[in-house]
Amino acid sequence: MTGVSAFFAIIVFALSSVPDDENRQQRYAAALFELGDYQAARREYKRLLFYHRNTQLRDMADYRIAQSYYRQNRSEKAESLFREFSTTYPNSPFRFQSQLMLGQLHFDAERYSLARTTLFELLHASDDVDVVAAAHYLRGWCYIHTSDWNKAIAEFRQVNTPESDVLEKESARQLADTLLNETPLPFKSPETAGLLSTIVPGSGQLYVGNVKEGLLVAAVSGVFVYLAADAVRERRYIDCAGISLVGLSFYWGNRTNARRLASEYNAQHEQEFIETLKRQADGIVSQQ
């Protein structure tokens, strides 16, 4: 046997020894995916599609490939593949999960309005209980991030149905109860803060809860009043005019500052509340 013949014999033997079992290939790829080795899993799914071009598992493999990009935070690539999926596989059982993942991608990118629209379309297209429950759950979180508490409650109540059997079910129930009990949040009115500081400089800051800054503003305002009055008493009218201009600028800045502090207080309080809801949801899911 020549060297070339021996080489081809070895190649033929190696190819014949490789198991031509697409189910085994799929299980191996799935195991890698479950272990979190998404790059290796994606490689194996692509190998499955290459060597088994007529496989009935093609839609599942493409869906997992898109998921693997998502799990590796390659959002643009994942979004592109999920968008193509419904067109490529209009009758696949994974098409609804693919649209759900599109909603998740919009949510992750803080495109909450677009996420709600995508999920709304899904709710009217799918009758899969788990997919519908997950869509309501994600829409609830979209409304949380836009401070629409009542609509968030309504969405979470839709998850809490006897038919649904998803991890989010108990989480949604408790989130709805928390929102019902804790909202509306005790916000500070920027208009009230501005009005108070208009009447008494520093009082708007005190209303917001910033005692140190409120007392400082009141003290500085008092100094300007004293200096202006002292200039008038000593007939230093030009000095009085200069002091009054600077004091008036400080006075108007004090009103703006009070409104800003109230808005910042509300934003921080809202963010802390959302973080509390996230910890509550993560705790419930981790217990299950």
Describe the oligomeric state of these chains in a short phrase.
Answer: single chain
The Cα radius of gyration reads 31 Å
Q: Find the count of extended strands (DSSP E, 2+ residues).
A: 0
Q: Could you tell me the strand content as a percent range? A: under 5%
**Helix/strand order:** HHHHHHHHHHHHHH
Mean pLDDT: 86
Which residue ranges are poorly predicted, with pLDDT under 50 across at least 5 consecutive positions?
1-19
The gross shape turns out to be elongated
Specify the number of helices.
Answer: 14
Task: Lay out the secondary structure.
Blueprint: H1 3-17, H2 22-34, H3 38-51, H4 58-71, H5 75-88, H6 95-108, H7 112-123, H8 129-145, H9 149-159, H10 168-182, H11 190-199, H12 203-208, H13 211-233, H14 237-287
Helix pairs in contact: 2-3, 3-4, 4-5, 5-6, 6-7, 6-8, 7-8, 8-9, 9-10, 10-14, 11-14, 13-14
